[in-house]
UniProtKB/TrEMBL annotation:
One Pfam match: 5_nucleotid
Name of the gene this protein is made from: NT5DC2
One function term, GO molecular function aspect: 5'-nucleotidase activity
Co-factor binding comment: Binds 1 Mg(2+) ion per subunit.
Keywords associated with the record: Hydrolase, Magnesium, Metal-binding
Keyword Metal-binding: yes
UniProt name for this protein: 5'-nucleotidase domain containing 2
InterPro entries referenced in this protein's UniProt entry, alphabetically: HAD-like_sf, HAD-SF_hydro_IG_5-nucl, HAD_sf, Pur_nucleotidase
C-alpha cells in the first residue's frame, strides 16, 4: 500500500516547532549546560547506577545481594510515572490514562486486569494524584530528565530483589532512599570526576556546540549560561568543547543556580566568584562579562540585564526545571533538547514502522465503518480485525522500547511527556547542532494539524494507502 517515497520523510536533524517563532526577532540566547551545551554518552548511566547502588549498600544498609543487578540500558524511557505506594512504574498518556502493557513492578510486567483493579476498575489516574507543576504529586512522581534513566532502573531492581525474596519494605522509604542515593552521586561530585577524567569518552558533539556558539556571536547575538552545575566542572567541559577562551563568548555565566527555584524565588542575591572559585562578598549592581556568578534569581537577572520577553530564547533539556517557568511566567521563548528524538525519527522512517502504522490505520478505519454489522459472521470478522490491530500496535510499540514504547506516544494518544513538551517549548530538537541547519533569521512555522472535527474523509483514505483520493486528483480544483 505504501508508495516508495513515504519512508525517510522525517529529518532527525530538523527542528520542530510547537509555536511560530522567528529567529530574526531573537537577540539573546540562553543555555543550560548538562544535556544542552554538553551532551553525554549513554555509558555514563551505568556508572551512575553502580555508584548509587553502592551508596544504598554502604550508607543505607541495603542487602549486598542487590549487586547482582546490573544497569539495563533500554529498561526505561523518559517521562514515566512511579506510583510510590504501589511500587508501580508506568506510562501515562495526556489524558491521565495508563497505557496497558506498560506497567511494571520491579522488573516484572503487571497484568492489565491487576492494573485496572489497583485503580478502582479504571485505567484513569485522578488529577489529585497526578504530578504537580514540577512533576511531584502526592503519590505519583514523574521522571523527566535523562539522569532519571539510571534512577528508574535502580528503583526497579531493588523492588525486584525485595519482592523475589519476600522481604517486607516501606515503599516510601525505598523510593526516597534510591532518589537520595542518585542525588548523592551528583552532590558528592562523582559524576563530575568521571567526566573530567575522560571527556573524550563521555562528552559528545563538542565541535558542534563550538560551531553553534561562535556562529551566534558572529551574528551579533548575546549569550548567557544558567546551570546548576559547579563552575570548575563547567569550565573544564567548555574548555574541552569550545576552547580556553570560551567565556569570551558569553555575556553572563551563572553556576549553581538552583533551578527551578532560580526562576521563582526572589530572595537569593547573586554572588561573584573569583578566578579560583572563591565566593566574594561585594554587592552585585550589574552583571559583567567575563565574571562568574553563583545563585541569584531571575527577577534580579531581568532587572540587571533588561532581557525580557520573546527576544530571549532559552534552551534546556528538563521541561519542568528549565523551561516551564520561563514560558508561562516570563514570556521567554524556549527550546527543548530531546536527544531521544533522533533515534525515534530513525525508527519512524523505517519501512517496517510505516507498513505497521499504515495497516493499523486501515484496520482502525475498517472497524469504525463496519461495526454497524451485527450478524454472527460480521462479529467474527470484526473480532479478528480487533485482535490483529492489537497485535500490530504491540509490534509498533516494541520498535521503540520493548517495555514502554515511544516517549512521545501511547498506542495513539500523546504521552503525558508529549503534552508537557508542547506546552512548555516553542521548539524542540535532538541537539543544539540542529541550529546549524538553519539561518539565524529563519522563521519556524508549526504545521496546522487537523482537529478531529476538521479532518476530512480523504485523510482516513490517505492513511490506508489509497492514493486515488481527492487529495491528489481533485483538491487542486478547489479554491
Amino acid at each position: 500500500l505504501l508508495p516508495p517515497e513515504v519512508c525517510n520523510l522525517l529529518n532527525p536533524a530538523a527542528i520542530y516547532a510547537n509555536n511560530e517563532i522567528s529567529l530574526g526577532d531573537v537577540e539573546v540566547y540562553g543555555f543550560d549546560y548538562d544535556y544542552t551545551l554538553a551532551q553525554y554518552s549513554d555509558s555514563l548511566h551505568s556508572m551512575i547506577f553502580n555508584a548509587a547502588r553502592e551508596i544504598l549498600i554502604q550508607q543505607y544498609k541495603y542487602p549486598g545481594e542487590i549487586r547482582k543487578y546490573d544497569y539495563i540500558p533500554d529498561f526505561a524511557i523518559r517521562g514515566l510515572h512511579y506510583d510510590v505506594q504501589k511500587s508501580l512504574l508506568m506510562k501515562i498518556d495526556a489524558f491521565h490514562y495508563v497505557q496497558l502493557g506498560t506497567a511494571y513492578r520491579g522488573l516484572q510486567p503487571v497484568p492489565d486486569d491487576e492494573v485496572i483493579d489497583l485503580y478502582g476498575g479504571t485505567q484513569h489516574i485522578p488529577l489529585y494524584q497526578m504530578s504537580d507543576f514540577y512533576g511531584k504529586g502526592p503519590s505519583l512522581k514523574q521522571f523527566m530528565d535523562i539522569f532519571s534513566l539510571p534512577e528508574m532502573a535502580l528503583l526497579s531492581s531493588v523492588v525486584d530483589h525485595f519482592l523475589a525474596h519476600s522481604l517486607e519494605f516501606d515503599q516510601t522509604h525505598l523510593y526516597k532512599d534510591v532518589s537520595d542515593a542518585i542525588r548523592d552521586v551528583h552532590i558528592k561530585g562523582l559524576m563530575y570526576q568521571w567526566i573530567e577524567k575522560d571527556m573524550e569518552k563521555y562528552i559528545l558533539r563538542g565541535d558542534e556546540t563550538h560551531a553553534v556558539l561562535t556562529r551566534l556571536v558572529n551574528h551579533g547575538k548575546k549569550l548567557f549560561l544558567i546551570t546548576n552545575s559547579p563552575f570548575s566542572f563547567v569550565n573544564k567541559g567548555m574548555k574541552h568543547m569550545v576552547g580556553k577562551d570560551w567565556r569570551d563568548l558569553f555575556d553572563v555565566v551563572i553556576v549553581r543556580a538552583d533551578k527551578p527555584t532560580f526562576f521563582t524565588d526572589r530572595r537569593k542575591p547573586f554572588r561573584k566568584l573569583d578566578e579560583s572559585g572563591v565566593l566574594q562578598w561585594d554587592k552585585i549592581n550589574h552583571l559583567q562579562k567575563g565574571t562568574i556568578y553563583r545563585q541569584g534569581n531571575l527577577f534580579d537577572f531581568l532587572h540587571l540585564t533588561g532581557w525580557r520577553g520573546s527576544r530571549v530564547l532559552y534552551f534546556g533539556d528538563h521541561l519542568y526545571s528549565d523551561l516551564a517557568d520561563l514560558t508561562l511566567r516570563h514570556g521567554w521563548r524556549t527550546g527543548a533538547i530531546i536527544p531521544e528524538l533522533e533515534r525515534e525519527i530513525n525508527i519512524i522512517n523505517t519501512e517496517q514502522y510505516m507498513h505497521s502504522l499504515t495497516w493499523q490505520q486501515a484496520l482502525t478505519g475498517l472497524l469504525e465503518r463496519m461495526q454497524t454489522y451485527r450478524d454472527a459472521e460480521s462479529r467474527q470478522v470484526l473480532a479478528a480485525w480487533m485482535k490483529e490491530r492489537q497485535e500490530i500496535r504491540s509490534i509498533t510499540k516494541n520498535l521503540f522500547n520493548p517495555r514502554f514504547g515511544s516517549i512521545f506516544r501511547t498506542f495513539h494518544n500523546p504521552t503525558y511527556f508529549s503534552r508537557r513538551l508542547v506546552r512548555f517549548s516553542d521548539l524542540y530538537m535532538a541537539s543544539l547542532s540542529c541550529l546549524l541547519n538553519y539561518s539565524v533569521n529563519f522563521t519556524f512555522y508549526p504545521r496546522r494539524t487537523p482537529l478531529q472535527h476538521e479532518a476530512p474523509l480523504w485523510m482516513d483514505q490517505l492513511c490506508t494507502g489509497c492514493m486515488k483520493t481527492p487529495f491528489l486528483e481533485e483538491m487542486v480544483h478547489i479554491r
